[in-house]
Amino acid sequence: MTQHQEVSEAQVSKPAAFLPTPPKDLICEPDLIFDRAQMGAAIVAACRDAEDARATRSAVVGLLRAARSRGMEAIGAAFEAKPREARPMTRAYTWLTDCLVATTHYVATEWLHRLATPTKGERIALLAVGGYGRGEMAPQSDVDLLFLTPYKITGWAESVIESMLYMLWDLRMKVGHSSRTVKDCLRLAGEDYTIRTALLEQRFLAGHRPLARELTATLESQLFHGTEKEFIEAKLLERDERHIKQGQRYVVEPNVKEGKGGLRDLQSLFWIAKYVYHVTSAKDLVRHKVFSQEELELFQKAENFLWAVRAHLHLINKRPMEQLAFDMQVSVAERMGYVDKGGRRAVEHFMQDYFRNATSVGDLTRILLSKLEAEHKKSAPLMERLFRRRRKIKEGYAEVHNRLAIADEKVFLEDKLNMLRLFEEALRTGLLIHPDAMRLVTANLHLIDEDMRTNKEAQRIFLGTLLKHGNPERALRRMNELGVLSAFIPEFEPIVAMMQFNMYHSYTVDEHTIQVISNFAQIERKELIEELPLTSEILARKINRKVLMVAMLLHDIGKGRDIDHSILGAQIARRVAPRLGLNKEECNTVEWLVRYHLLMSDVAQKRDMSDERTIRNFVKAVKTVERLDLLTVLTVCDIRGVGPDVWNNWKATLLRKLYNLSKAAFDNGLEPVGLKNRNTAARKQLREALPDWPAKALKQETARHYDPYWQGLPTDAHKIFAKLLRDISDDEIRIDLQPDDDRDATRVCFALADHPGIFSRLAGALALVGANVVDARTYTSKDGFATAAFWIQDADEHPYEAARLPRLSKMIHRTLKGEVVASEEMKSRDVLKKREKAFRVPTTITFDNEGSEIYTIIEVDTRDRPGLLFDLTRTLADSNVYIASAVIATYGEQVVDTFYVKDMFGLKFHAEGKQKLLEKRLRDAIAKGAERAHS
Question: Could you give the strand order of the β-sheet that contains 785-793, starting from the edge strand earlier in sequence?
Answer without folding.
Answer: 733-740, 745-753, 785-793, 772-780, 882-891, 894-902, 856-863, 844-848
